[in-house]
Amino acid sequence: MLQRDSPGLVLASGSAARRALLQAAGLRFETRxxxxxEAAVKTAARLEGTGAEQAALMLAELKAAQVAxxxxxxxxxxxxxxxxxxxxxxxxxxxxxxxQAQLExxxxxxxxxxxxxxxxxxxxxxxxxxxxxxxxxxxxSDTFLTAYLDAEGDRVLGSVxxxxxxxxxxxxxEQVDGNHAAxxxxxxxxxxxxxxxxxxxxx
Length: 203
Known about the structure:
By secondary structure, the chain is α+β, with helices and mostly antiparallel strands. Helices cover 36% and strands 25% of the residues. The N and C termini lie close together (11 Å). The mean pLDDT is 95.
């Protein structure tokens, strides 16, 4: 057994990609979806001059802390991701039209994904990590964009970048620099390193 029975793990996220990453690594965990007003936190962060990485870290900890209130003794994993292109922060698109506009804005440019993860135990943050992969979209045609959105459908609404790099989204890119798991929303290798150090996993 790679994972010890205690403490239990809880993922404070509704993200299918994050859940799949932990499952692929063979971890046993429960999933809880937190209720945090992310837009309000990001707005306040921007007004205070907080950077995207720090804002993502704040959101990750808020999510984990909220779930940890109802999970005593469990190690709660929180995560957040903010896409930054130039001076603009992007959120998940509300609909296909918004996704199209967002991809048009990102086309031919390089953006970064401020990807934060934390672990909270009984209200105390015991670990945190931030990764910032950089991705360059190719200057794809309008014809390609229409075909891509038709093929992906509502799946593009589940990502801040309107893409699944593990799927058809890979066709959008010219270059990708950064850890694949961090791009998907969770810096998995640093998390696993911490879980071994914390004796959740066998060293």
